[in-house]
Amino acid sequence: xxxxxxxxxxxxxxxxxxxxxxxxxxxxxxxxxxxxxxxxxxxxxxxxxxxxxxxxxxxxxxxxxxxxxxxxxx
Length: 74
Hints:
Blueprint: E1 8-11, H1 15-25, E2 30-34, E3 40-46, E4 49-55
């Protein structure tokens, strides 16, 4: 039986890298949520590949009372 890729998630270091890849693939960049450390999570998905960029947040928000993974709703 041949191996098959169902989902590939890769993290990139900068939003510029994420935006360049999303532009090349003609897909939108979306904000998915925040981490427990209050960093914004942005993603772009094309086929089975999702690129993720975690950006430190300059705004200080209270942590959510009920945190869920940004990928729970994908």
